[in-house]
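Researcher: Please predict.
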Amino acid sequence: MDARELIGWNLRKLRVERGLSQERLALEAAIDRSYVGRIERGEENVTISVLEALSRALNVKVGAFFQETEPDEPRPAPMRAGRKHGKA
């Protein structure tokens, strides 16, 4: 797994664990929702500034995005479609 894939994997895992939609995370991090999706798919070469914004929104250290995964660890499950109830 390359660095972009690892960051995307961990971002999705952290976001889903917190019950946040891509839209809610993007709003809290002040970035575009579609950009969050591209990061999660490993399609973006994300900057440190964006990682810092995401880490603040998720309340984790930037290093959390670089945690190695177990070889047999399943991909984080997607959240159900539709609006998520949470912070407004």
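Model: The radius of gyration is 12 Å.
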